[in-house]
Write a structure and sequence with these properties.
single chain; 9-stranded parallel sheet; alpha+beta; 11 helices; binds ligand MIG
Length: 774
């Protein structure tokens, strides 16, 4: 490896600073006061356009650049970069002069590789890196980002399906972020080989890095997702419970599953079809014996309130006479070896060819195939699997394969981590194009930085192990800290057979994760909510119901995530960054900023320890008050999930429904404790894009003291969408009162079994409501 050596010259032009070294050009550019783009381009290398970065131009930033004592100080209002000139070394500082990130040995390079060696301080914790097993804090780990179809998620397994080269380093509440825009392999050693050093190696010739000055981890995530995009608001049905298995077939079995859910009053929105719906695993076909009339099936399921999602794998069966293969071959759309032969790998259909999704023409062609085969049949969403890309024998494409637009082809390894991202992009964009007024739903296994723009992500092939119920928490929180909010795991575990107890505990966690799907591998025992008898079924039902009761809250949180880029399921450190007790707390999580779950994830356990950060908390089930910071041992028999609400929160709920399409005329506002609080509640039609042109409503709710009495104000919903609720129920936890007054009307509060006080009112929409407690 060659180090940069001395600066030969430098030049500042506005927000940009160029530093010439013997072997190339180092460029620093402020995109915002707290965001600096760093590029090192060795001589003779080419810049590649980014697929992750979507914001092309940024508002002006005021920066200054001064030279003093052999150093340049390149300064914005939010940070400064100190560049030593002989040799070239970098330090990133916060405005008060404290160090955020400093070079250790600095930048070095050789053909096809760049390395950045950095110093690590004892206080720092490291978060993000996309989908990684283990606890939240990745300090002390060596990690490689190389998308891999790894079916055995043992604790020391490193490479999984997602590859997101973004992380944050946090020290006593102050964080910085670093995004390395590289779709080839990236290797991190985070203070493993040497306790005070990090070494990052990119297997690509040019370094494209983005430094985020923070210091709040929320501001870093918000900037990072401004750069790489945010999750579009999904259709509400995709937030419902999804029932899956490899595979439900023939169609009578699919009907039986759907009816099974309805007959048992187990709320659900989706039944999923895995690979066996296809004709010999040929993508965009149906097995005519198993599914003689897909359109009729979808219509019937729709009448029961179900949507259907089908799996779509990237591999196209090599099979002359099969239209998709013939067409792809004839139009030259498949990935080829350097010698021009189409690359073939073995997957489910046997020998398969793979579309080169780096090409726009290929993405459009692929997208178009969805219409006749799937969308016209009534399929509502697409599940993209095997897109690491995965081949059975060799695990991925042959090293001599090429990908890229015509004339710009690069070896596969330069594109490897982007295959799933680009497949999801093709799918998402085609759904948008083919169903212009519907919100697409895409689910993917593999992805790269920015995948949140196109797809929800599930964590792939876990096991029905208690250990994986635990792993569920930090892995999903880590995804959230990597900019991807719509995430979930196979509830109940994919491989192996869960016990009823494990399923019940897993459903409790799943009900609070953004993506909620029960899925199991072929050959494993059934794990639908009803197969373990009465007791387990009723626990599952209770938590599926909770999911739907929480729907107004969850949907509101999805809207916030779409607007801010912050995760829905989040580690406590995001809310309490300076509390050392939560720096690596991996077995509790928050949903938005107001709910905190502390699931039980061990067999036989009916208690667990819960950490309550500073502030007052309320038990969701009993209203009991807990004042943090404190540790408590809480009771949690199998039917209970320890769940808490931040005091002062106002959490919107709705009555239990069996699916999101059911009409709901009641809004339940739950108020937690005698503490001031507010809520902004977002609502829209849940399905179309009409909200983009203003068809949504926002209702501002406020709970505050007014002349010695508590008053709840529910503002008239604003916006052109009229909410469906005409009944408003107030549920007061931890509040002393006997009646509520609205204008001249006085209503006695009733006590519920959980201790909360409640009263209902009819409401004409839209109107302003004021309630006084007495
Ligand atoms: O080689 O489609 O992770 O969810 O059920 C296995 C069959 C292929 C892997 C996915 C899993 C799915 C399975 N697939």
């Amino acid at each position: 490896m060659q180090f940069l050596g001395n600066a030969l010259s430098y030049k500042q032009t506005g927000r940009q600073l160029n530093i010439q070294v013997a072997g190339g050009l180092l460029t620093l550019e402020y995109l915002a006061a707290d965001l600096c783009h760093l590029r090192f381009q060795p001589e003779g290398t080419k810049i590649r356009p980014s697929i992750a970065v979507i914001k092309p131009s940024w508002p002006a930033v005021t920066v200054t650049c001064e030279e003093s004592a052999g150093k340049l100080f390149f300064v914005s209002a939010a940070m400064s970069v100190e560049v030593s000139l002989e040799p070239v070394r970098l330090r990133f500082l916060s405005p008060d002069g404290s160090e955020l990130l400093a070079d250790a040995a600095g930048l070095s390079y050789q053909e096809g590789q760049v390395r950045w060696q950095q110093s690590v301080r004892p206080c720092q914790h490291f978060y993000g890196f996309g989908q990684k097993l283990g606890y939240l804090d990745k300090r002390g780990k060596a990690m490689t980002l190389w998308s891999t179809d790894e079916p055995y998620h043992a604790p020391d397994v490193d490479q999984l399906y997602q590859a997101i080269p973004f992380h944050m380093a946090m020290c006593e509440g102050a964080a910085y972020g670093l995004f390395l825009d590289c779709t080839a392999k990236v290797e991190y050693d985070i203070a493993k080989a040497e306790p005070d050093r990090a070494s990052i190696t990119l297997h690509t010739p040019v370094l494209e890095a983005y430094f985020f000055a923070g210091p709040h981890p929320k501001s870093i995530l918000s900037r990072y997702t401004e750069l790489t995009g945010r999750m579009p608001l999904p259709p509400k049905w995709a937030l419902g419970y999804q029932q899956c298995r490899w595979s439900y077939y023939p169609e009578s079995r699919v009907r039986e599953i759907a009816s099974g859910l309805r007959e048992r009053n187990l709320p659900a929105d989706v039944v999923v079809l895995d690979i066996d719906y296809m004709d010999g695993y040929r993508v965009f076909t149906w097995d005519n014996e198993r599914f003689p009339n897909p359109k009729q099936l979808m219509d019937d399921l729709k009448a029961q309130g179900f949507r259907v999602i089908t799996i779509v794998d990237p591999g196209v069966k090599v099979d002359p006479g099969y239209a998709i293969y013939d067409d792809g071959l004839q139009k030259d759309l498949f990935v080829k070896h350097a010698d021009g032969k189409v690359f073939e790998g073995t997957v489910w259909p046997g020998m398969t060819a793979f579309p080169d999704f780096t090409r726009q023409e290929v993405r459009d062609w692929w997208g178009d195939q969805h219409k006749p085969a799937l969308l016209d049949m009534g399929i509502a969403g697409i599940w993209n699997d095997m897109n690491e890309p995965s081949c059975f024998a060799r695990n991925t494409f042959a090293p001599d394969t090429l990908q890229g637009e015509k004339g710009e082809e690069l070896p596969h390894d330069q594109w490897h981590n982007a295959y799933g991202f680009l497949m999801s992009k093709a799918t998402f964009e085609s759904l948008k194009r083919l169903k212009p007024n519907e919100r697409p739903f895409v689910l993917t296994r593999s992805g790269y930085a920015g995948i949140q723009r196109y797809s929800a992500v599930w964590m792939g092939d876990n096991h029905s192990w208690w250990e994986h119920l635990f792993t569920h928490m930090p892995i999903l929180m880590g995804m959230g800290l990597s900019g991807v909010p719509f995430v979930g795991c196979d509830v109940g575990g994919f491989q192996g057979d869960p016990s009823g107890e494990l399923l019940a505990r897993w459903m409790q966690v799943g009900a609070l994760t953004p993506f909620f799907r029960n899925h199991a591998a072929a050959g494993t025992a059934a794990q639908e909510p009803w197969v373990f008898g009465e007791q387990i079924e009723s626990i599952c039902r209770r938590f599926m119901e909770l999911r739907y009761e929480l729907m107004p809250f969850l949907y509101n949180e999805f809207r916030r995530a779409a607007q801010t880029g912050l995760p829905i399921m989040r580690p406590l450190l995001l809310e309490f960054p300076s509390d050392p007790a939560v720096a690596n707390l991996s077995d509790q999580f928050m949903v938005g900023q107001d709910l905190m779950a502390a699931p039980v994830y061990q067999p036989g356990a009916d208690h667990r320890m819960v950490y309550f950060p500073a502030g007052a908390w309320r038990d969701f089930w009993t209203g009991e008050r807990i004042v943090g910071p404190t540790y408590q041992v809480v009771k949690a028999p199998l039917e209970t999930l320890p769940l808490y609400v931040r005091e002062g929160a106002i959490v919107p709920l709705q009555p239990v429904v069996q699916h999101t399409g059911e009409a709901v005329d009641e809004l339940i506002l739950t108020v937690w404790g005698e503490a001031e609080g507010e809520l902004s509640l977002y609502e829209d039609d849940g399905e179309t894009l009409a909200f983009e042109s203003g068809a949504y409503s926002e209702t501002k709710v406020r709970f505050a003291q007014e002349g010695g009495r508590w008053r709840l104000t529910v503002g008239a919903p604003t916006g052109t969408f009229t909410p469906a609720w005409t009944k408003l129920t107030l549920r007061l936890h931890g509040i002393t009162a006997t009646q509520i007054e609205r204008g001249a009307e006085t209503v006695a509060l009733e006590r519920r079994p959980d201790g909360a006080l409640t009263a209902s009112f009819s409401v004409a929409q839209p109107s302003n409501q004021e309630f006084y407690l007495r």
